[in-house]
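Recall the central idea of this unit: under ordinary conditions, the amino acid sequence of a chain determines the structure it adopts. In this exercise we apply that idea directly, starting from the sequence alone.
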Amino acid sequence: MDLAFIPSPSTGVVYLGPIPLRGYAFCIIIGVFVGVWLGNRRWVQRGGRSGTVADIAVWAVPFGLVGGRLYHVITTYEPYFGKNGHPLDAFKVWQGGLGIWGAVALGALGAWIGCRRRGIPMPAYADALAPGLAIGQAIGRWGNWFNQELYGKPTDLPWALKIDPDPAIGRIGGTYHPTFLYESLWCLGVAALVIWADKRFRLGHGRVFALYVAAYCAGRAWIEYMRVDEAHHILGLRLNDWTSLIVFILAVIYMIVSAKKAPGREEIVEPEWQLAEGAQDDTEGTESAKGAKTVEGSEDADGAPDGADGKKDRKKDGGDADGAERTDASASGSAKAAGGPGGATS
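Accordingly, the structure predicted from this sequence is:
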């Protein structure tokens, strides 16, 4: 008898009148918003313009959703195009089935288009977005919990996931490893690692994103190994295990090569915006300098008349003194001539 386990939701959809509100879709949407929000904060910290991340996400998110669905349908084609398959079910994204590898690949293509239109270096944008992607994945994985899918092998651990039986799809009830929870926690750890490494080593030129990819692949490999859902196997390993291994190696190689070719971090991440700001600052500085010179010139102009007046005043004062001396001399001469006191002797 199981004394403790994680219960699964009795239903993954709630109806608001005729409108279905699906838990899987809500988790994806919330994950996207959180990822864009954090990416925007990091982009601004790097010197970019607020809102740029969201503008480019308008391209990246739809491409990512299409890519994720395509990867799932191609690698798990039997329910859609196999015997007794239903091709139209390939469009029912709300039922689950988004491959992270396809989402990242086509999402990167959409981001590249958006970056190219804005004149922004793609590696810098990817670095700013990396931790947000990991947190978005951590939130999105809870959609599997609502759909009771992608769980691991049977277990009686206290944190086992209780799965309800569903004969219609061949689902056997019991308690299983909650691989969705393992991956969610792992993604949060990846986000923390990437943020720390970025601050500690000032990573740039796409190396933050490469670290996120490598760290995620390392965790996805052992989590994928625990899963019991149907999957294609190559040499005894699930297809996603091989994908994780190959992508991990490519990410590590990129980090090594990039560190040698472009060490350090980008100084300018949004050229048009930052250069425009610099030009505006230069213009304002020039106008301020001109204004200061104009003020100084006005002060000099005001001082000139004052100086001229001073000279006139001094000349006038000097002239008055000379006139007084001449008057006194004349008076003395007259007194001598008349024999007055001025000319008497004892």
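Residues 303-346 have pLDDT under 50 and may be disordered.
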